[in-house]
């Protein structure tokens, strides 16, 4: 059995909900009302394994995270605001759980179990926003004036470990032309070899993998 501390606001996780949660979980659940901690880090010795913070409390979350991470405590938040900006900020916190206010009790219990196993839980309502942001990050973003169109094509093939002959055959150009393009890419990237050219392109999201 694990100890779970819920830091809750005045509206969310009301007494009836907490009682039902306690009845349907094998874990020990304690609560702290936001009004009783005065926006400060809890000082009483709860020895929790997991802390769930209701974001409606407007508590100093970075301070709270710093405090509990120092004690090797897992941290999760429960959010009601699913705006993209808000969710992106939450994911930057690098904590173990991202729950949604309208979750069923069975879902909350499953999330607790998942987090306590050392995994990261993200509710589907929030993960769709994260995935959308991830896809944007994965979009190729090339500076058009850095390489010519043919050089970008060569670079893509270098990334796929093509030899000069393979590139020449695929692009229907001569080996010497491929070699000239490769040398031009290395010069423009200010690198000494193909490997470093590929690493630079990947780092800057200039090529697809």
TrEMBL record:
- Entries under Gene3D superfamilies matching the protein: 3.40.50.2300, Winged helix-like DNA-binding domain superfamily/Winged helix DNA-binding domain
* GO terms under biological process: regulation of DNA-templated transcription
Top-level taxon of the source organism = Bacteria
Q: What InterPro entries does its record include?
A: EvgA-like (IPR051015), Sig_transdc_resp-reg_C-effctor (IPR016032), Tscrpt_reg_LuxR_C (IPR000792), WH-like_DNA-bd_sf (IPR036388)
UniProt domain HTH luxR-type: residue ranges: 140-205
One annotated GO molecular function: DNA binding
> Sorted alphabetically, which keywords does the UniProt record give?
DNA-binding, Transcription, Transcription regulation
Q: Which PANTHER family match?
A: HTH-TYPE TRANSCRIPTIONAL REGULATOR YHJB-RELATED, NARL SUBFAMILY
**Identification of the protein by name:** DNA-binding response regulator
